[in-house]
Write a structure and sequence with these properties.
Domain 6-phosphogluconate dehydrogenase NADP-binding: 4-158
CATH topology of the largest domain: Four Helix Bundle (Hemerythrin (Met), subunit A)
CATH superfamily of the largest domain: dinb family like domain
Largest sheet: 6 strands, parallel
Strand content: 5-15%
Helix content: 55-70%
Number of domains: 3
Pfam family, one: NAD_binding_11
InterPro entries: 6-PGluconate_DH-like_C_sf, 6PGD_dom2, 6PGDH_NADP-bd, DinB/YfiT-like, HIBADH-like_NADP-bd, HIBADH-related_NP60_sf, MDMPI_metal-binding, NAD(P)-bd_dom_sf
Domain Mycothiol-dependent maleylpyruvate isomerase metal-binding: 339-458
Protein name: NAD(P)-dependent oxidoreductase
Number of helices: 19
CATH architecture of the largest domain: Up-down Bundle
CATH class of the largest domain: Mainly Alpha
Length: 472
């Protein structure tokens, strides 16, 4: 019988290994922590003393590491390459970026080995029940060898083609699953806040046409207030970045994913990365207006808190809108007329400055100066202290600085600064050319810039200046 090993016994790896052992497959295992190894040895698995020993003694090696750097270290992918895989098969169960998987596959093949992608769709409960959906990519002969070995862990296995088609397919499937869970969590919070019976809402959803094993499990956890991980929030947030990369290349807008990514990132920044993705409910609860009921039952809002939350929500929404517009921009027309004297590239560069100034003004030393109390005061100061020619020149320079792939760079900048805003309190001081102000107040000016110029960007590609009659 073919000797098989599995490296990585985390939330998903351990139940997969249990199902393989239960099927009668002789399985050798290794993990960085000892507890899951001990549990599986009690069921009949064999423990290797090191990843190297496991690779040396097994013909087929399954790996379940989502951390690409850790996976390289465990596999010994370095100066010596992957020579230990000569004549062996490496099967990647975890979801990585398609680019990473393709490069790993090339290295394995160069070492004389075989490589199969086998990411699985599902979380801990389907893994425990052997009801995962497996996706395979690789040569036909290699996939033929791997498929029956993985079958005990899966309800269905689908062949996707050549590497990295399985990874790309898995990430696209996750796009729906991630946004569905975020929306379901939002629905649960809405039911709570609207004063209806949450359990009635749950019963209706569980019986409805959109019900699934995922929705039922997540609603049960939300009802119980159970945020323990079926899949880790920080891993899911990492997956949203990989899905966004695919969307950028495909030039497909993903506004629902953009919001989910921000929710997950902010929740992770609060220290909840090891919880289930439904832990975003706490972040959602804080995004909403802070209010209390007055004596007559009317809502009495704290205007200052509510206003700051509204500004953050506006900035997030404006940023999502900007990114959707940029993904739809026709790259071949970036030198067309944009706004005024600007080309479309210049207008794009100017708009990205709405993000870049957040970075630069936050990083600038606080050297005193006048205090700007509001966005209105900021725009009043800017109007008297700037001239149109210098603004136009900065836009052109910013367009040039976006480089050879301006749309991709603009989206990278947007995502980077969103992360910075998410992890900031809002009380930080930004040192603008016109005075000092709180970050939360400055965000209002950036949200307005993004809103206005996203509309300009969306209109510009459709605008064609009238042709002049060559005869006058």
């Amino acid at each position: 019988m073919t000797s098989v090993g599995l490296i990585g016994l985390g939330i998903m790896g351990e139940p997969i290994a249990r199902n393989l052992v239960a099927s009668g497959l002789p399985l050798t295992i290794w993990n960085r922590s000892c507890a899951p190894v001990e549990r599986l040895v009690a069921l009949g698995a064999h423990a290797a003393s090191s990843p190297g020993q496991l690779i040396a003694t097994c013909e087929i090696v399954f790996v379940m590491f989502i951390d690409e750097k850790a996976l390289d270290e465990v596999l010994g992918r370095g100066a010596s390459g992957l020579d230990a895989f000569a004549g062996k098969s490496l099967v990647q169960l975890a979801t990585t970026s398609p680019q990473y998987s393709a490069a790993l596959g090339r290295d394995v093949l160069a070492a004389g080995g075989r490589y199969v992608e086998a990411p699985v769709s599902g979380s801990r409960l389907p893994a425990e029940a052997g009801e995962l959906i497996g996706m395979l990519a690789g040569s036909r002969a290699d996939v033929d060898q791997v498929e029956p070995l993985l079958a005990p862990a899966c309800a269905r296995i689908v062949r996707c083609g050549a590497v990295p088609a399985a990874m790309t397919t898995k990430l696209i499937v996750n796009h729906f699953l991630i946004t569905m869970v975020s929306t379901l969590t939002e629905t649960h919070l809405l039911a709570q806040r609207a004063g209806v019976d949450v359990e009635i809402v749950r019963d209706i959803l569980d019986a409805g046409p959109m019900a699934s094993a995922v929705s039922r499990a997540k609603l049960a956890k939300l009802s119980a207030g159970d945020l323990t991980a079926h899949s880790r929030l920080d891993n899911v947030r990492w997956l949203t970045e990989r899905i966004t990369d695919i969307a950028l290349r495909a030039r497909v807008p993903t506004p629902s994913l953009d919001i989910s990514r921000r929710l997950l990132a902010e929740t992770e920044a609060r220290g909840h990365g090891a919880l289930d993705p439904i832990a975003v409910i706490d972040t959602l609860a804080e995004w909403g207006p802070s209010a209390q009921l007055g004596d007559g039952g009317e809502a009495v809002a704290n205007d200052a808190v509510r206003g700051e939350q509204d500004v953050r929500a506006w900035f997030r929404l404006a940023s999502a809108g900007f990114q959707a517009v940029v993904r739809a921009l026709p790259v071949s027309r970036l030198d067309d007329a944009g706004l005024g004297s600007w080309r479309l590239r210049d207008l794009l560069g100017h708009t990205t400055r709405a993000y870049l100034t957040i970075e630069s003004y936050l990083a600038a030393p606080d050297i005193g100066g006048p205090r700007i109390a509001s966005a209105t005061d900021y725009f009043a100061a800017a109007r008297t202290a700037t001239d149109a020619a210098s603004v136009a020149a900065r836009g052109v320079a910013a367009g040039v600085e976006l480089g050879a792939h301006p749309c991709d760079m603009a989206l990278t900048i947007a995502r980077r600064v969103e992360e910075l805003v998410t992890t900031s309190s809002g009380d930080e001081t930004v040192s603008t050319p016109f005075g000092r102000m709180r970050l939360a107040d400055y965000l209002a000016t950036r949200a307005l810039e993004l809103t206005v110029h996203s509309a300009d960007l969306a209109r510009a590609p459709r605008y064609r200046p009238p042709r002049r009659n060559p005869r006058g």
